Amino acid sequence: MPNIIFSEGSGLNDSIYGNSQAPIKTIITQNAEAFENQSMLKEIFDMDTSTNWAEKMTTETSLGDFVDVGENGAYPITGYQEGYSKVITMNTWKSRFEVTQEMIEDAKMGKIKSRANSFTTSYLRTREKLGAAMLGGATAATVTFGGKKYDTTGADKKPLFANDHPSVTKGTAAQSNAFSYTSSQSMTDIIDAAQEKMQDFRDDDGNLLTVSPNTIIIPNVAVMKRKIFAAIGSELDPNTNNNAYNFQLGLWNVLVWPYLPKTVGGKNYFIMMDKQFNSDYECAKWFDRVKLTVKSSIDENTDANIWSGRARFGAGFGNWRSMAIVGEGVTGTAL
Question: What is the second-level CATH architecture of the domain 4-63+83-334?
Fold first, then answer.
């Protein structure tokens, strides 16, 4: 949960606004806690802090296999090679609200509370919307949010979801984590196939990785919720009456993220993720450089009490291998 740092301007305790400072701080803090309890950011992005203007994420190739050298044989020379890298910058975000002198004089605490709540919700909603826009728009190299473009490529300079991820060592052919399906395919078969594809992801040297997808992320679309839960929630095969055991039962944590775009390519989709791999290999990263800092001051022209909030944070993608997008409208490898 992001900490909130409060700083109070001089003389406020002696002003007409003095007694309102503590209640407003409490309102802001409590609203932040309530919103954060429902946040999906921490479930999807690997949350970290930064002390720099930007953070560089790098990957390494894996160490070569052990070699049978025979009795008293010399150690083989093996090593790592630095892979692709990605820089994420820490952007500055600001907003403010005001409490007029008339509100305090007329004891309009309901209106004051509403403005304080809206302020906190705006900050946390912005974070949530940015993360969802970047993830949902990561079939392209950039996404536009709030009139600005944000980079949605991974360390290999390809969009996070692409069907031509290259190898820095040329040890493997191009790999895909963007998969398409048709309306005639069952959701059970789609999930089975996408899971298999992810489990077969290779590193840059062609070595099989330990990717084990365990999370499915979907937008708030009723038909997709019904299909996904029917495919993974039934003890038996939901597509036949032969009572075959459904091995997908109990394997998945399903996250419904209302801020995600409803469709990709005009069609339904979902995202599959290995949460542990995502954390271990710096795939989807979120950096908080400066926590939300709220300061209170008096506007000399209007006598209003101004509450200003400032924060610095940035997000981006490094290693693409923790996630795959699967959709009917996705331009990618057919399942």
Answer: Alpha-Beta Complex (3.90)
